TrEMBL record:
UniProt name for this protein: Phosphate transport system ATP-binding protein
Annotated organism of origin: Fictibacillus halophilus
PROSITE patterns: ABC_TRANSPORTER_1, ABC_TRANSPORTER_2
Presence of keyword ATP-binding: yes
Domain ABC transporter: 23-264
Amino acid sequence: MDITINKQMVQKNEKEQDFTPVFKINNLNLWYGQDHALKDIKFDIPEKQVTAIIGPSGCGKSTFIKTLNRMVEMVPIVRMSGEIMYRDKNIFNPKYGVEELRTQVGMVFQKPNPFPKSIYENVAYGPRIHGIKNKKVLDEVVEKSLKGAAIWDEVKDRLHENAYGLSGGQQQRLCIARCLAIEPDVILMDEPTSALDPISTLKVEELVQELKKDYSIVIVTHNMQQAARISDRTAFFLNGEVVEYTDTSTLFSNPSDKRTEDYITGRFG
Ligand SMILES: Nc1ncnc2c1ncn2[C@@H]1O[C@H](COP(=O)(O)OP(=O)(O)OP(=O)(O)O)[C@@H](O)[C@H]1O
């Protein structure tokens, strides 16, 4: 009997390790002044899968995702310790430029934030900054990115109209296209559907499923059903700690920690 359990546990552990990590987070701590917002975070994020970050308000979800592209450092009172390896490079190494990191690790925010420019210029902006000047090449990048974000058919006849004329859901998919245009490796999404109606939310969720074929995705969500629907792995955060991190179906059907069970069954949060 014991042997069977041990064998099952080994198989489960092997299954859990069975991915190529895009990020390895080791003993990450973060303080806002005296407030210890992230505590000894340690887990690996797989490539070409969707990783959901869930937990109650104030548990550190947004803070965590913003460490992955070092955006959190824009807050002056932030202090950090520990290590984040992105494809075997330590992102806190001063030799690793933040621009290079953010080219590889794109981000989509809670509220769609297009530039006050045309649909075309929103998508062409990043490639232009990266030195692409040729109109034909830019046209191709814009089309490919808009197709990749499942919005091409809706905007192909109005590419030179202002992006503010799009609906909220279209603006969010435009922001995803803008992110794709710089050919990232990872896409961070911080509650990307919380400002959207149910139909637009569904479109973005379907899009995330498509995008994971080519990109590694980390998504913060308040919505547990969304995490269960679209993610492969889920990390449950509480008070700045990772309580449980495992494949999504296990976390929602058979959580190993009582606090996870209480949260997913709605006892708090
Ligand atoms: N810019 C900041 N300055 C000081 N403290 C901050 C700052 N941003 C976040 N915090 C604190 O860090 C902790 C974690 O906040 P964070 O926004 O990461 O949580 P969250 O889980 O994303 O919350 P929510 O679901 O409400 O967005 C909270 O105690 C918050 O007050």
